Amino acid sequence: MQVVAVNAGLALCQREDQSQHQIDLSLVGQVEVGDWVLVFTGAAMEVISPERAQQIQQALSGLAALLRGEALPDEAFADLCHREPQLPPHLQRQ
Fold first, then answer.
1. Cα separation of 28 and 47, whole Å?
2. Which of 15, 40, 65, 93 supports an S-S bond with 70, CB 3.0-4.6 Å?
3. In whole angstroms, what is the distance from residue 11 CA to residue 2 CA?
4. Can you give the residue range of the structural domain that contains 65?
5. Does 60 share its domain with 39?
6. Average pLDDT of 32-39?
7. CA distance 50 to 15
8. Is 19 in the same domain as 54?
9. Residue 33 pLDDT > 80
């Protein structure tokens, strides 16, 4: 979600569908209008880049298309296509 207003530990954030929601900022601290935040159950979990926000939105749109019985759009998981799967760093050492 993108931050559209900030007020005392809360942010008014807007989703891709233009709906707006009050989001708790306790876990991420100060944000600015225009910032992007990853939100879970009404709380911002992480401040993310616009590029990462776009990747997440494309993935969510792709999943929604699949649920409607449509074909998966090519860009839905572009960051995962055409590359070898990688283990997280803590498992690479093993």
1. 7
2. 65
3. 9
4. 49-83
5. no
6. 97
7. 13
8. no
9. yes
**Is the model more confident about 14 or about 72?**
14
**Mean pLDDT (whole number) for 72-82:** 75
Q: Are residues 44 and 3 in the same domain?
A: yes
My answer on whether 29 and 3 are in the same domain is yes
Please name every residue paired with 11 in a beta bridge, in sequence order, or none if there are none: 6, 23
| In a shared domain, residues 59 and 32 | no
C-alpha–C-alpha distance, residues 90 and 94, integer Å? 8
Q: Which has more confidence, 91 or 12?
A: 12
DSSP 47-90: EE-HHHHHHHHHHHHHHHHHHTTPPPPGGGGTTTTTS-----HH
Report in angstroms the alpha-carbon separations of 76 from 5, 19, 61, 62.
29, 22, 7, 5
Record the tokens describing residue 80, joined without a space.
Answer: 């995962």
- What is the domain count for the chain? 2
